[in-house]
């Protein structure tokens, strides 16, 4: 048997056990992982640093910023007008807004008033001894069930919760096109099931009653157009 020389063995060993090369993709992935880890740690540090600063400035400790948000809402409430004056083609109706009980709805209502959304809006339906409705469309919406015959004032609950001259809007999504206004003209037992009450008429009840007395067709639509000309917002009256 022929002997292999030591020098030949050394060369064969180098060929078999040569170091493996690291691919460029592997290096890139490792670098990306390190970069993401550093970014995550930095973001976490920024979050807790900012939260600590807010708590220090507000003088309160809060979980997930709940108390900070509450302070923001309270601050915003103080800047929202407390009254709305509806200038209609029949006269003025002054409404006190329930900022504490229905803040989000009042906030949306005020925003739409400032945009002039209600300017020229018609009173689409008048249901005597129930409600008058101002809206952009002819749909009865929340008032549909109130058109059923057989309901009389003697059947109505007269508790303060359901009293007359309350301002509300439907519980549907409150976007710019579906924000309807309802003013009750009598106590309605299922009022809070149908609408979100966010105000009360404090002046101009006679105007509401005058609108209620207009002639309507079989679909409860006024035969003569009655409109909201504009709405003025006031902090106090």
Automatic annotation (TrEMBL):
Glycosyltransferase as a keyword?
Answer: no
| GO function terms (MF aspect) | peptidyl-prolyl cis-trans isomerase activity
Q: Keyword annotations for this protein?
A: Membrane, Transmembrane, Transmembrane helix
Q: Which Pfam families match?
A: Pro_isomerase
Whether Transcription counts among this entry's keywords is no
Q: In what residue span(s) does the PPIase cyclophilin-type domain sit?
A: 91-233
Where exactly are the transmembrane stretches of this chain? 21-42
Instruction: Please name the PROSITE patterns in this protein's record.
Output: CSA_PPIASE_2
Give the top-rank taxon of the lineage listed in the UniProt record for this protein.
Eukaryota
Name of the protein described by the UniProt record: PPIase cyclophilin-type domain-containing protein
